[in-house]
Amino acid sequence: MDHALSTPDEPVDDTEPVDETEPADNIEPADHAEPVDDPGPLAAKPEPHHGRHEAPSHHRVSSALIGALLALLGFALAIQLRTSDQDGFVGARQEDLVRILDDQNNRQDRLRDQIADLEDAQRRLEGGADATAAGAEASQRADALEVLTGTAPAVGPGINATIADPLSGLHAEDLLDVIAELRGAGAEAIQIGDVRVGVTTSFQDTVDGAVAADGIRLSRPYVVLAIGDAATLDTALKIPGGVGATARAAGGSLAIVEQQRVEITAVRTPVPPKYASPAPS
Questions:
Q1: Collapsing DSSP states into helix, strand and coil, what is residue 17?
Q2: How far apart are CA 164 and CA 160, in angstroms?
């Protein structure tokens, strides 16, 4: 904004007009005065401007306008930067934008396919035949879980292992090794004596030299039934330095019979977990 300079007010002459033809009594005529042109009515000559005669109100208005413009400019810049940050695509290269667009389109296609699959599954479940099949599948899964947890009898191919211990030389840790070897070989159901082996099964040595499983005293010889691949289970118990070697070192023996049908009748009573609970899906 241009700063205009103001002209000082004209001085007011309170004296009476002086007749130029008659010199005033108190004015002496100047000697050798050079003639000058009559300037006409007296006019005030503007004094040189040194910044002291600018009107204060004009200065304040100009400063206020400049401040307002600067504030408006700062606000506009802040809004622009904030919009750029939120957008996230400002300044991105063209190939990056094309890739982002392709990713979004592919994600949208995948979501459409998932929606179509879910709607198709819903229609199948609402139908009579598919609902029956779904119920049968759910029942099979429940039966399998009961076998694996030991809460239901089981039948299938496997082995019948008899561990003789005439000298009572085997201990709880030795029978625990038998269960560990069978589990490692893929046994799906195990029974030792009259005890169905589960995830919480434990073995203890009794005070009279016997071995108990889950608090139930086991009778000698120890009879172990296991359902799984018979050849694999047989090999697992006969590995060098394994269960067979331990039984022989204790004065006993190990006899294994592979069978096409092994029946496990002992079951476990499910106990509600004390600490564990299903994790939220």
A1: coil
A2: 13
Peptide bond into 153 cis (omega under 30): no
CATH 3.30.70.1880 holds for 143-264: yes
pLDDT in tens, 116-157: 877 776 676 666 555 676 677 678 778 888 888 899 999 999
- Give the pLDDT confidence of 181-217 residue by residue, as tens digits: 999 888 999 999 999 999 889 999 999 889 999 999 9
Q: What is the pTM of this model?
A: 0.54
Q: Which residue, 205, 207, 142, is CA-closest to 176? A: 205
Are 194 and 216 in contact, with CB atoms under 8 Å apart? Answer: yes
At how many degrees (to 10) do helices 94-126 and 128-149 cross?
90
Buried b (16+ CB within 10 A) or exposed e, 245-256: ebbeebebebeb
Measured CA to CA, the distance from residue 91 to residue 254 in angstroms comes to: 77
Region of residue 147 (left: phi > 0; alpha: psi -120 to 50; beta: else):
alpha
Contact indicator for 181, 163 with CB cutoff of 8 Å:
no
Nearest in space to 221 (alpha carbons), one of 251, 185, 245, 188:
251
User: DSSP string of 79-120?
Assistant: HHHHHHHHH--TT--HHHHHHHHHHHHHHHHHHHHHHHHHHH
100-120 burial code (b ≥16 CB/10 A, e <16): eeeeeeeeeeeeeeeeeeeee
Which pair of tokens denotes residue 277?
A: 């609970």
- Find the angle CA(204)-CA(205)-CA(206) to the nearest 5 degrees: 110
Adjacent-strand bridge partners of 162: 223, 255
Confirm if 216 and 172 have CB atoms less than 8 A apart. no
